Amino acid sequence: MITDFEDIRPYNDAEVRPVLDRLLADSELHDTIAGMKYPRLSKLLPWLFRPLVAKRLKAAFASATDVDSFQKVIGHYWWALIEKQSEEIAVSGLDQLPRGKSYLYICNHRDIAMDPALVGLSLDRAGRKTMRIAIGDNLLSKPFTSDLMRLNKSFIVKRSVSGRREKLQALMQLSSYIRHSITVEQSSIWIAQREGRAKDGLDRTDTALIKMLMLSKPKEQSFAEAAAELNIVPVSLSYELDPCDASKARELYSKKELGSYQKGEHEDLQSIYDGIVGQKGHIHVAFGRPLAGDELESADSVAEAIDRQVLKNYHQHPTNLIAYELLNGNDDRVDALKKVLDLSDEQWSEARVRFEARIAAMPAEHREYAIAIYANPVVSQLELLESKG
Length: 389
Hints:
389 residues; 55% helix
């Protein structure tokens, strides 16, 4: 097993203050924050906004001396943003996870920053330890982003490496780090169920992820024993509104109708910002139960077990059910899902008007793709229910 994790691991307590001081003096960080918050004015008057941003950051992080205190500062601002941009945050399933254990949270993936943030904050508010976060190096398009992420318990997934040997080495290092973190350091991990966001709303676990996790399996262990050691817990996240729905629909349209889609420079950073500040409506974070028994026999069985829990625990919002009906018409099975939400006819009517107005604001050629983003979780859940008979 590989034991050298220096280039991918999160920063430790002793590194927090030196790294933070370096970041607070980074003019590119100041310009980026100013540019996102005040896009027009910051271009015209960078000399004005740069010192203002620097002063605010310095004051905000004055008390951060280690990882926990850094996360407390971040958490305070995260919750303020989340509560401002959402109507309700519901958390379920934590009662079935014994305290004092470390887990591998494998989560469906809709938002670059919000998904791990919501899982971590849900744990923190329940008096549990936050987890380390897997983040692809494709998101680190600016030098300061790597420092920021690693301060916040993130570790780096090397997606940009080229060459077969180099890729295998990177995957083995990643697999070893995840197993070491959970079994030796007793620190939980968050990782998405597949590479990249499920922009089409179809949540499926990539078996390649499970195979990567098993690269660090000790030779003397069976597949099931090595998988059990990781304490795999599926997590299902659902947002009533997706702040990036329009950009996702644009990309889906381009790939389907034009054959390709070219990302703009720093587009992922813009998606992170949009996901953080955009309206999300109701949010549900559902923790599943740890995988066990014959669910752990193979990569396929692990992936299937994760999918079953993610889809079963997915909380459908009015936007999902309305979108499904817009594409498929009336369906008795959807009526049953509607009853769970316990909304009046007037509330359903208002929700439909708001959703249709949101979709109508997008280019006509993108609308069907945007509706499908919301409808597909319903399709997946209905397929799961039917498969059970």
